[in-house]
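We emphasize that the prediction below concerns an isolated chain of 720 residues; any contacts that depend on oligomerization or on bound cofactors are therefore not represented. The input was used exactly as deposited, without trimming of termini.
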Amino acid sequence: MTGIALRLLRHRPGSVLATLIALIAGVTILTGMGALVESGLRPLPEPRQYANADIVVAKRDLTITGKQFGDPYKATVQLPERGSLPAGLADELRKVPGVENVAGSADALTLQTSDRGAVEKVAASAGAKVYTGKKRVLVERPDIAQARGLLIEVGAAFGGYVVMLVIFVVAGTIGLSIRSRRRDLALLRATAATPGQVRRMLMAEAAILAATGSVVGVPAGLLASRWLGDQLVARGFVPADYGLSLGLLAAPAAVLLIVLVALSSALLASRKLSGIRPAEALSQIAVEPARLSKVRLGFGLAALAGAVSSSAISVGAGGQAALAGAVSMLYLFVIAVALLAPWINGLTAKRLAPILRAGWGNSGYLAAKNLAANARGGATVLTALVLSIGFGGSVWFLQDNVERQTVQQLKSGTLAPYTVVAPSGISNAAVEKLGRIPGVEAVTPMRQTSVIVKVFDTLEVVPAQTIDPAQAKATLDLKVSKGDLGAVGPDSIAVSATQAASRGWKVGDEANLWLGDGTPKRLRVAAIYERGLGFGDVVLSQSTFGLPPTKLLVRATPDAVPALTAALGRSATVIPSEQATAEVSKDLAISAWLNKLLITVMIGYAGLAAANTMTVAALARRRELAVLQLAGVTTRQLKRMVHAEQAGLLGVSVLIGGAIAAVTLTAVVYALTGGAVPYVPLAGVLAILGGATLIAMGTTIVPIARLLRQPSLAAAGTRE
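Result of the prediction step, given as a token string:
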């Protein structure tokens, strides 16, 4: 059947090209995402600082165990700060038989020993871990450990979503292409082709297209992964000497996945069509089956219910939990639309009939009838448009909202006109000296850090700040809603309103958390504030954290600035607070670059799905249009009919996709900022609507115009 498949492919250039584009893009994206994961899992370099040590004992992550709803769990998170070891651990290790030498400091201990198992037990009792072999470099180079974690997390998280998106796009394109050939397949069955032969032919076509797409997609994916690696190094995400993978393992994995998806899609789409009895084959191709699957309806309603539940989680949670809930909600909404699309199309066709008739006359009447009759066939088109609009209107705007709110909160909450930046830290004596300079009214020491909180059965790293609350009211306005920021001390903290709501904390409650170095703390909530994005979700006292401040907010007159600069010397820099906020905005833009890049890829692929799907659907209408022409419908009327159909379909897609985007964006923005109305730039809205309109109209008008130029009598007996 392979020979027949090759001959048939030559006669369907439009749908073949659309399917090839989907496959090529899929392989390219999967190869790029896989290369990120492969880079994160690549062999570690040899350690240098600890090259002569048999074992390195250090505290680099935090692990907890417990039970959630009766099921045991184990959660591990990398410490955001260097973990300190107990003072007596070195002496305990020296007592272990076989240990010859113990050296190092509170951050890491190096050992020469012949009994590693005993050392591991002693280290575990102190909350530390044993690092041997190449893993010693993870203690020596924390930047390598962070880069590995980032690459694996980004590649796996976005790669998982991309895999689902690729499966949907490829399956939809191949499935629609096969369904549009019902008449060809019916003729094959009527001429004694067995169901198995038809299925093998269609699977051979899919295999040929997948192989061809891989030949182009793999080199493109490898080039894309190399470019992405260079960008990650240039922007500081990955050390320059890390040595990113070329994706040599990711490429075959991507090819295998895309071939399996193509073959599975062809098999599923061909099962019903190939099973038609020869005598009934030609009688079952004129119209779609009237009955729709109750199983499909049930799963669609279940997905819709799951999306509503995820929205509740997004609103009630905070941080990463809110983002995860939002993404789940987005996908569940799209899945629900995909499953319920035939019913949606049938219902909206009836509601749109008067509107289309009023706007396009008789052509609008034909358009409404076509939309109703082709409710199942238009399901893939509706889903693709909703997917592209939903993604573009929610995930992209979410990043803009976070950046905008962070900068606004920093501007509004910083009362001090000057900021002192000291990356290596400032001593308490130097801070006191600055406070005695004439013209200096208040000085608030600060240090950016993180704390770790337990969220269900996982651990989450939460941004935090340490401050000296003594003069904070003169330099900071965190917009405290409950409690008193001045009450923050060695045994108490202040938390953001979003963090308090998601954790159920109130003023006076005890909060269990871990400092950035893994030290467990039980601290009383002294205040709740609103500006968590700008200043972190937790505010600690400097006495609780113990490390020197790296930033000072200084309320002073302009005349005091020269004296401040002279007192600090070269160890620190005095800058206007507005400049400090602008630099934070630049850092946020750099941090958001990777997210926006990956989001752009997903939105672009969703848009490609819509374009491909609509192109295949348009090319499949050759015989239908020819029959209408023979019945007396003019070319102008047919074009107006198609325009009316696309306008109706686009309107429904914009309403549904816009509603999904609005719900998703509002839920996450509310969870992260407490604001009920998200920021949506007009230019972004116009870009999404314009892109959707261009896809809906451009990918249909051009193929239809080509079809209408063909002789109608000859085309009436064919089908693309």
